[in-house]
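Listing 4. Sequential folding, example run.
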Amino acid sequence: MLKRNEAPSFASVAHKIGEPRLERVLEKLADHIRTDIHNAKFTPLRSEVRSNVKQLKADAQQFEKSLNRIDLFQQLHLTFHDTHNVRQAIRNVIKWCDQGLSIVSGKAGRRKQPGRAICAMIVIEAWTWSKGKAPGANNPKVHAICDEYWLACGNQSLGDPRNWQTSMADVLASHSHLRHVIRDEIRAHEIAP
């Protein structure tokens, strides 16, 4: 049992999962969480990306209008280089912008908290390795283990352990490459008796 101000350890998390030998691999896998939290500082907001792509599209359209004015000069027999290739490049930029805007959602929403999905992923994979089957997204015991592992990694508790339900559901529905990497690291890690 943890004392009031005592942070959980990787050993206590491994014990709650039901396999104390997981302690070392859980400690090693915590680096994935730290990396995700660190890298999130450099990830632009979805709204910033959309805004920049919209601005690029507007600038390309303005440039195309400017080229139309050059065509008027050419009618006056002023020589300019052939603008056909330039126009095609502009159309490609506009097309690329439209494709990008269709991929990057414009809906409002909160940014996912960095590290949380990876934390849930590690706990789910460790649980699956230990128990032989994945937990459900509504499993309160696994919610509590996620929160304890999150604390062991040096982060603040989410408060109510049920706050892990969305992260767990996202992980269970995902087939990300990182999930397979974590699964392989748990399987391959030398677990001392």
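-- end of first protein; second protein begins --
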Amino acid sequence: MRGRLLLIAGMLAPSLALAAPKAASDKGAPPPAAAPVATACKAPEPPPASARPVKPALPEKPACLDAKGGCPGWEAYSFNDAVKAYNLQAQAFRPIAEAYVQKLNAYVKASGEYAQCEINAMQN
């Protein structure tokens, strides 16, 4: 990062010339042309953290699943139902998560554009 800042500073140095003091004969001369107005760069806003979707919780695995005899029928069926419910929740979660990722990617892109705008404003 430090090398990048030095590079940017090096790019700015040629355009940052100090004004020479005015000679006494320049008193009647018109004032110099106004410097171009810098473009206002608008900083991007990240998507709110409250919009971040919450991944569904995995169903709790019954202890009998690892036991030698396995689970009784009702417990196995209950766990199977919980897994099916989780799969449905995960299926619904995916497009919501992808939409949030798109918003994050748009924020990253806008951040890069903002940084470039700031660099351009300093160079003008």
